[in-house]
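Allow me, if you will, to draw on your knowledge of protein folds for a short while. A protein sequence and the structure tokens that stand for its backbone fold form the material at issue. I would ask you to consider whether the tokens describe a fold that such a sequence might reasonably adopt. Thank you for your consideration; the sequence and its tokens are set out here:
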Amino acid sequence: MDWSHNKVEGKLEYTSLLYVPARAPYDLWNRDSASGLKLYVQRVFIMDDAEQFLPLYLRFMKGVVDSNDISLNVSREILQKDPVVDSMRSALTKRALDMLEKMRKKDKDKYNKFWNEFGQALKEGPAEDASNKEKIAKLLQFTTTHSDADAQDQSLEDYVSRMKEGQEKIYFLVAESAKAGRNSPHLEIFRKKGIEVILMHDRIDEWLMSHLQEFDGRQFQDITRGELDLGKLEDDEDKEVQEKTEKEFGKLVERIKEDLGDKVKEVRLTHRLTDSPACLAVDDFDMGMQMRKIMEASGQAVPETKPIFEVNPTHPLVVKLDQEKDEDRFSDIVSILFGQAGLADGVQLEDPADFSTRLNKLLLELVD
């Protein structure tokens, strides 16, 4: 797909030829598979797959490096301790990232093809290579609400260039798929205010964002975490309405919390919803659903966390719930709202049979 030839003279002397393949190998996601450059010393072939010259997130790069500074009597163990190799690794990594940056700027279609093949491997970079974190961040691409396409073709620079006046943070949402992300109730307030949100739907994305806290001086904000704060994008009228509804529906929040008991960490009113009656949020320091699924699939112990249940006080169903006197009916409606909020977030119901029974009970009442 692309290549870069370089001859270095001076303190270090070596020649490198790097290639970006057109297609990903079948074992790209196996981090233990053989990868690296072909190593020559003074034009004498030494070894295939010398992984010491590029970091693991660039394992898709192929190429040759010929050095005059490394001893002919070399082994993999010696390469790991050689300061010359460390200097070459740093220089080759920057050259590889510069080559990708030039491709992104000169030929966006070509870079999109590259991203479809190798993008997920590149997303490992911010966690593994702190010194080049900003360079790697500029190469990352995502799906956003800016367009209806599900392709990951929008860079963080593109997002920042379209940020609204007064917007201080880069907003993102982690979901099972692009479709699930677009239909998430968490997007409702952002659609209303015309704020773009990055939709992250690769398995690696939540892990990536735990290592990428900011870009271009702007903090990232997961819109499903904590209480939503839009900063300067919220006007005084919005705040007044919020304070009024919190007083009006205070007792309802207490009733719901008492009904759900230890199923939730907290129950609170939300102002992030416009069309949905309820949603689930994650506490600021709790593990997200995507990361939990990855750990569970790999057989690792997952810390127990409980969701925060948020209800929309402007929704007719919640308004009627506040007026419900029958405690059994109240409990049924709360359980269904809680189950629906979980389903919208891709959470598996703890007791699907109970959910169905309660739903059918309410449907029968409507039919009668």
